[in-house]
């Protein structure tokens, strides 16, 4: 990456950041993404959490629980 370039910001919104088929597909990607090249933002639309949720949180640079957030408020979360 060029010195003046900022990392690519990648955001995901899901109700499946838990023990779910999504976890088995997405976690390896998120846990191994090059942090010098990318910033990962995760927006979770669920209230219950498990050990997979903890791994998603650890893999994220930014985590937002947005279960009851309006569309307008959700859009305002992204800088």
The shape is: flat
Q: What portion of the residues fall into strands of 2 or more residues?
A: 15-25%
Strand order of the largest sheet: 1-2-3
Round the Cα radius of gyration to an integer and report it.
Answer: 13 Å
Total beta-strand segments: 3
Distance between the termini: 22 Å
Approximate helicity band:
25-40%
What does this structure look like?
- The mean pLDDT is 86.
- The two termini are 22 Å apart.
- This protein has 3 helices and 3 strands; from the N terminus they run βαβαβα.
- The protein is of the alpha/beta class and 79 residues long.
- Helix content is 35%, strand content 23%.
- Helix 1 runs parallel beside helix 2.
- The chain has a 3-stranded parallel sheet, covered by helices on one side.
- Strand 2 (38-44), helix 2 (51-59) and strand 3 form a beta-alpha-beta unit.
